[in-house]
């Protein structure tokens, strides 16, 4: 009986050790899989964070470039009020000289007709000279439009005359004027209006929010992973 009981006890202990060894093997395999998963996720998370930081840095640089170009010109512009201008007179006064590039270190002189357009702003009786845009105002405030200088002066003359005929056909045109009346001229179009500023700021803003969202999602994933791991330890 003693030998039989001992044999049974030895067999039971052997089966228990075998079960524990099998459990330990599964446990080691499970831990190894988790380590492999963590090891595989770590470089991916680092790359995602670097991508998010790169997007944020790029958006900040774009904001800087826009701030010294479009936003600065938009803020410095005094033609902020939009109104309706009635064309009173559209005539060609004189020929203006311009220079065009004819090659390396070569510049030649050409001429274009100066078109002067006078309008009445909002039917108030205020007569102002109309310019095509901010750029035209800075280049030559006397003329409505300054074409790109070229050798063929006849083509520039035809272009200006076509513009004059269109203005005579459309007696009322939208325009921008200075409400403080410090600038006598009014503009037909603005280089940088509300729409252009909005679209210019839209894409850097989307990039900034996208980069921040990537970083937040990575940090949230890491937090949830640590939380699940702590819950698993508590259950064991």
Walkthrough of the structure:
GO terms for molecular function: calcium-activated potassium channel activity; potassium channel regulator activity. It is found in: Membrane. Keywords: Glycoprotein, Ion channel, Ion transport, Membrane, Transmembrane, Transmembrane helix, Transport. The chain has 5 helices and 5 strands. The chain is an alpha+beta fold and 236 residues long. Among the domains are: 114 residues, no CATH class; 43 residues. It has a 5-stranded mixed sheet. The protein is elongated, with a radius of gyration of 38 Å. The N terminus is likely disordered.
Low-pLDDT segments:
1-11, 34-40
Q: Give the overall average pLDDT.
A: 79
Report the β-strand fraction as a percent range: 15-25%
What characteristic shape results from the CA principal axes?
elongated
Based on secondary structure, the structural category is alpha+beta
Query: In what order do the strands lie side by side in the largest sheet?
Result: 4-1-2-3-5
Largest sheet: 5 strands, mixed
> What is the helix tally?
5
Radius of gyration: 38 Å
Instruction: Return the string of H and E elements.
Output: HHEEEHHEEH
Annotation keywords:
membrane, five-stranded mixed sheet, 59% helix, 5 helices, KCNMB2_ball_chain_dom, 22% strand, 236 residues, calcium-activated potassium channel activity, transport
Brief sketch in words of this structure:
Its main location: membrane. This protein is α+β, with helices and mostly antiparallel strands and 236 residues long.
Please specify the SSE layout and strand pairing.
Blueprint: H1 2-68, H2 70-76, E1 81-103, E2 106-121, E3 127-131, H3 134-139, H4 153-169, E4 172-177, E5 186-187, H5 194-235
Parallel strand pairs: 3-5
Antiparallel strand pairs: 1-2, 1-4, 2-3
Helix pairs in contact: 1-2, 1-5
Organism: Cottoperca gobio (Frogmouth)
Protein name: Calcium-activated potassium channel subunit beta-2-like
InterPro entries: K_chnl_Ca-activ_BK_bsu, KCNMB2_ball/chain_dom_sf, KCNMB2_ball_chain_dom
């Amino acid at each position: 009986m003693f030998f039989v009981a001992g044999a049974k006890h030895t067999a039971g202990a052997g089966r228990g050790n075998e079960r524990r060894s099998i459990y330990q093997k599964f446990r080691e395999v499970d831990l190894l899989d988790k380590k492999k998963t963590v090891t595989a996720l770590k470089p991916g998370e680092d790359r995602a964070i670097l991508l998010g930081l790169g997007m944020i840095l790029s958006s900040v640089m774009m904001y800087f470039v826009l701030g010294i170009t479009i936003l600065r010109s938009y803020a410095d512009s005094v033609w902020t009020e939009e109104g309706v201008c009635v064309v009173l007179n559209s005539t060609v006064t004189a020929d203006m000289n311009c220079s065009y590039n004819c090659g390396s270190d070569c510049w030649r002189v050409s001429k274009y007709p100066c078109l002067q357009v006078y309008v009445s702003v909002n039917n108030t009786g205020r007569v102002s000279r109309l310019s095509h845009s901010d750029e035209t105002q800075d280049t030559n405030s006397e003329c409505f439009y300054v074409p790109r200088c070229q050798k063929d002066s006849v083509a520039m003359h035809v272009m200006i005359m076509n513009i004059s005929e269109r203005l005579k056909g459309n007696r009322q045109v939208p325009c921008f004027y200075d409400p403080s009346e410090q600038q006598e001229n009014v503009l037909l179009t603005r280089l940088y209006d509300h729409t252009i500023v909005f679209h210019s700021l839209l894409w850097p803003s989307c990039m900034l929010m996208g980069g921040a969202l990537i970083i937040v999602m990575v940090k949230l994933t890491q937090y949830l992973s640590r939380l699940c791991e702590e819950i698993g330890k508590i259950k064991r």
